[in-house]
Each structure stands twice: as C-alpha cells, then as structure tokens.
Design brief:
Blueprint: E1 9-20, H1 27-30, E2 35-42, E3 52-62, E4 71-75, E5 81-88, E6 94-106
Antiparallel strand pairs: 1-6, 2-5, 3-6, 4-5
Length: 117
C-alpha cells in the first residue's frame, strides 16, 4: 500500500485516442507479430513524487475474425507525466484504440523544505 504523508492529494485524468489504423492501413490493422503504440502524457500540474497511474481501454475496435489480444499499461511514470502504452501481438487486428487514465498522488506543500547538499 502506498501511504501519502499529507492531505494535499492531487487527481489528474484524461481520455486519449492512441491510433486509428483502419483508415490508413497502419500496422496495428494490417500487421502481425508484436506491435505497440505509446503516447506521452503530461500531467496538468506537478506531483511531489511520481503518482500512482491507472489505465483502461475506453474504446477498442477489433476485428472479430482474429484473436483479440491487448495489454494496456502506464510506463516511465514521473512526477510530470508518463507513457500511455497499448500492445498487441500475433494475428490480432486492431482498428482503433482510445484509453482513459487517472493519476493520484501527493502534491507539493508550502511547508516542504528543499535542502541542497
């Protein structure tokens, strides 16, 4: 469990379209094997430390005649942002994906001290 040290807690969230490959015959729609797409998300403000980030699919448009495989994750989380990542593999055909995200973490407090070495 992550324990937050103060009552200054921030929540940021968004909903992002990662790709729409069926319109352009992109590799998520026409390719096979391991594929991924990522998007850099910048928080609307700075967290004190890297927050906890939860991601989910808010739209997925997949070809029903092939296996449906997907992994959705937040990677490289910092106090300023993170990478929103969608992965698929094998013969999966993905037309388009939109992902939602929510970040929860500590905000800086006026009483925080910054001590330089």
């Amino acid at each position: 469990m992550r324990r937050l040290r103060n009552h200054h807690i921030g929540v940021d969230q968004g909903d992002e379209t990662l790709f729409s490959d069926f319109e352009s015959d992109g590799d998520m729609w026409t390719g096979d094997g391991p594929r991924d797409r990522r998007k850099l998300i910048k928080f609307s403000g700075r967290f004190r430390t890297p927050p906890t980030v939860q991601v989910a699919l808010s739209l997925w448009d997949m070809d029903a005649e092939h296996n449906i495989r997907a992994e959705v994750v937040a990677e490289e989380v910092t106090n300023l942002g993170f990478h929103l990542v969608f992965r698929t593999w094998g013969d999966s055909r993905v037309a388009r994906v939109r992902m939602s995200w929510m970040a929860i973490g500590e905000l800086a407090h006026a009483d925080d001290w910054a001590i330089d070495d």
